[in-house]
Design goal:
With 290 residues, this protein is of the alpha/beta class. It contains nine helices and twelve strands. It has a single domain, classed as Rossmann fold (3-Layer(aba) Sandwich), CATH 3.40.50.300. Helix content is 31%, strand content 23%. 35% of the residues are buried. The structure holds adenosine-5'-triphosphate.
């Protein structure tokens, strides 16, 4: 895929500035094929969406990019350099932050405490060293505001925020700690329409801040609203790869819904004889026909 040209005419690929690139990547668990020959590019200021049903391989793909699992074949490039990440810590050090659906937060702790969890600034020295609470409070408030999130009170326990707000805090946190690539695991899966809209706004804000975003979702409408590249996965293989200018929402939805498979099923249902105990005729054909 390296060196391909998009419909827009720009050169793409590791050599030309993709932050993260998967080229023909495969992953097997024993003899189970979780991913085979999957390619994906993530560019600064772009949103690459990965769409797929259950078991399509989305989690496996996240785990490879996040440094949890190693790929078995193909190339994984970070800023053009072939890489095999040894751990999630290494992924973070290389600028890849992953926000999982079940966010790792401490519900009873204040928003600001969760914002800095694991990276708390301290002040003073020696035995007088202590958490710099004022700085954490102020920074959290300012950073959330910068992303357009106006929280009434950063002292409230994060568990009192809505699911959408918590996703937004996690995105703002990744931006603040200098992520270059943000991987979002189904951030709107458990949310209603309005909250999904709020989260997608912050996904777009992260993109506008210059990050490259990988948005995993099974919702083509959400993907199409913000995405500029779409990779469709089906049972571990890539069933489609499109740039936004090369596919319509209707077509993306059709492909995601099963496309030709659904059409075939619909024809089969039309032809299928109705069993006699359900009112069909012994000779076959739908009930009510002669
Ligand atoms: P879902 O949306 O249901 O989580 P997914 O698209 O994330 O699905 P994966 O979890 O990546 O899909 O799974 C892809 C395939 O790999 C599935 O067939 C799954 O059973 C298999 N698989 C995933 N993880 C493992 C594992 N640790 N060991 C064995 N097989 C696995």
């Amino acid at each position: 895929m390296t060196g391909d040209t998009t419909a827009g005419g720009a050169t793409v690929g590791g050599a030309s500035g993709a932050l993260v690139e998967l080229d023909n990547v495969s992953k097997y668990y024993g003899n189970i094929r979780a991913l085979e020959g999957v390619s994906l590019e993530v560019h600064a200021g772009g949103i690459s969406c990965v769409l797929g049903d259950n078991g399509a391989g989305k989690s496996t793909l996240i785990k490879i990019i996040a440094g949890l699992h190693r790929h078995d074949a193909g190339d994984f490039l970070i800023e053009g350099e072939k890489t095999t990440l040894a751990s999630p810590r290494e992924a973070l050090d290389r600028g890849i932050a992953t926000v999982y659906q079940d966010l790792a937060v401490v519900p009873l702790m204040p928003v600001w405490r969760n914002f800095f969890l694991g990276s708390e600034p301290r002040k003073g020295s020696g035995p007088f060293k202590r958490l710099d609470v004022a700085l954490m409070r102020e920074t959290t408030r300012a950073e959330l505001l910068r992303m357009g999130i106006d929280l009434r009170d950063v002292d409230q326990p994060i568990g009192t925020l809505s699911g959408g707000e918590r996703q937004c805090v996690a995105i703002a946190r990744a931006v603040y700690f200098g992520a270059k690539v943000l991987v979002l695991d189904e951030p709107t899966a458990a949310l209603g329409v309005k909250q999904s809209g709020v989260v997608l706004k912050y996904v777009a804000a992260a993109r506008d801040a210059g990050l490259g975003v990988v948005l995993i979702t099974h919702n083509p409408h959400h993907a199409y609203l913000v995405g500029d590249r779409f990779v469709l996965l089906k049972r571990g293989v890539m069933s489609g790869s499109h740039t936004k200018d090369s596919i319509t929402l209707d077509e993306l939805t059709r492909q995601m819904a099963g496309g030709s498979e659904l059409e075939e099923l619909s024809h089969e249902l039309e032809r299928a004889p109705v069993p006699s105990h359900l009112g069909g005729h012994p000779g076959g054909g739908p009930a009510g026909t002669n």
